[in-house]
Amino acid sequence: MSPKPEQPAPGAQGEGTLLSHLFELRNRLLRMVLAILVVFLALFPFANQIYTALADPLMVHLPEGSSMIAIEVAAPFLIPFKLVLLLAVVLTIPYLLYQLWGFVAPGLYKHEKRLAAPLVISSTLLFYTGMAFAYFVVFPLIFAFFTSTAPEGVAVMTDIARYLDFVIMLFLAFGIAFEMPIATILLVSLGVTTPEKLAQKRPYVIIGVFVIGMVLTPPDIISQTLLALPMWLLFEIGLLLSRIMQRRRAREAAETGESEAQYDDAEWSQEDIDEGVSRPKPRPNPLRERHAAAKAAAAASAAGSGSAKSDSATGDDEYRPLSDAEMDAELDRLADEEARGWQAPEDDKKGEGEQKDSDQGDQDKPRA
């Protein structure tokens, strides 16, 4: 007698699935770290040149004879090192998001994938755009303003470490601020709000973007305004895009939608869930089909009998279909005959004649 196969322990399958996900997460994190390391090693020989390019918006506005300084001993090495490491992370953002997407995507529905992919790509491009706007537009303006307002006798000599912290804060502020259209579209897509409600709250949004600009930028009106105005403009762009998206969805629903009666007996299937449809596909209803078939058969039989009677009477009369009320009455009559047992019309007449003869004979008999 062969031995029985060993049964897996309860929860072993779930444990194996969890471990496989953890292994996949570890592998993807290692790939992300490796990508950052490769870019960092490629850029590190040019660390000083990269820092010089970053400091150029300030250097061109320094008074003649002034320069930047390093007040810490290890700053000339650590600050370019820190800059190159951050630059490697920024440049590998598309690959990092790709690895995160590869880990999360199998657990999403198709409609969620269709929504997430454009948002990830557009958010990355908008973040890069915000950083470029800060470097090419904001830095020259605010550094020209700061250096020109120095009191007489004060030499402007900025520390390289504090300058790096300052520009990193501005890069992050403008990069995040340029995500305003993505945030607006997400709020509308998730049903949290509508474009009409957002448009009604426009005054509060304007005040909010100026408050954010005041908090995230240095305490000057120029940088605050340069951050608040693009955020307001991007909010209007996001509002316009959300309205276009909402109209397109309504138009698609109107074009592809069917009457609600077709979905009365519909049920959700796994295929519907995978496809991310907004309503279940109609399923065949056996009861409705049998009723329709019985009604059609009754109509055909009634039409045939009516046609035969009409032909025997007139010979050339045309066929007249039964109305809905006549058809229902015919169905009820057939159901009644089936319930009490069907009998031929000739037999019924014969039985009625015999009954009448017997009644007449009883009446003719003399009374006792």
From TrEMBL:
<feature type="transmembrane region" description="Helical">
    <location>
        <begin position="227"/>
        <end position="245"/>
    </location>
</feature>
<feature type="transmembrane region" description="Helical">
    <location>
        <begin position="74"/>
        <end position="98"/>
    </location>
</feature>
<feature type="transmembrane region" description="Helical">
    <location>
        <begin position="29"/>
        <end position="54"/>
    </location>
</feature>
<keyword id="KW-0812">Transmembrane</keyword>
<feature type="transmembrane region" description="Helical">
    <location>
        <begin position="119"/>
        <end position="146"/>
    </location>
</feature>
<keyword id="KW-0811">Translocation</keyword>
<protein>
    <recommendedName>
        <fullName>Sec-independent protein translocase protein TatC</fullName>
    </recommendedName>
</protein>
<dbReference type="InterPro" id="IPR002033">
    <property type="entry name" value="TatC"/>
</dbReference>
<keyword id="KW-1133">Transmembrane helix</keyword>
<feature type="transmembrane region" description="Helical">
    <location>
        <begin position="166"/>
        <end position="192"/>
    </location>
</feature>
<comment type="similarity">
    <text>Belongs to the TatC family.</text>
</comment>
<comment type="subunit">
    <text>The Tat system comprises two distinct complexes: a TatABC complex, containing multiple copies of TatA, TatB and TatC subunits, and a separate TatA complex, containing only TatA subunits. Substrates initially bind to the TatABC complex, which probably triggers association of the separate TatA complex to form the active translocon.</text>
</comment>
<feature type="compositionally biased region" description="Acidic residues">
    <location>
        <begin position="255"/>
        <end position="275"/>
    </location>
</feature>
<feature type="compositionally biased region" description="Basic and acidic residues">
    <location>
        <begin position="330"/>
        <end position="368"/>
    </location>
</feature>
<dbReference type="GO" id="GO:0009977">
    <property type="term" value="F:proton motive force dependent protein transmembrane transporter activity"/>
</dbReference>
<keyword id="KW-0472">Membrane</keyword>
<feature type="compositionally biased region" description="Low complexity">
    <location>
        <begin position="294"/>
        <end position="313"/>
    </location>
</feature>
<keyword id="KW-0813">Transport</keyword>
<dbReference type="GO" id="GO:0065002">
    <property type="term" value="P:intracellular protein transmembrane transport"/>
</dbReference>
<keyword id="KW-1003">Cell membrane</keyword>
<comment type="function">
    <text>Part of the twin-arginine translocation (Tat) system that transports large folded proteins containing a characteristic twin-arginine motif in their signal peptide across membranes. Together with TatB, TatC is part of a receptor directly interacting with Tat signal peptides.</text>
</comment>
<dbReference type="Pfam" id="PF00902">
    <property type="entry name" value="TatC"/>
</dbReference>
<keyword id="KW-0653">Protein transport</keyword>
<dbReference type="GO" id="GO:0033281">
    <property type="term" value="C:TAT protein transport complex"/>
</dbReference>
<dbReference type="InterPro" id="IPR019820">
    <property type="entry name" value="Sec-indep_translocase_CS"/>
</dbReference>
<feature type="transmembrane region" description="Helical">
    <location>
        <begin position="204"/>
        <end position="221"/>
    </location>
</feature>
<keyword id="KW-0997">Cell inner membrane</keyword>
<feature type="region of interest" description="Disordered">
    <location>
        <begin position="254"/>
        <end position="368"/>
    </location>
</feature>
<dbReference type="GO" id="GO:0043953">
    <property type="term" value="P:protein transport by the Tat complex"/>
</dbReference>
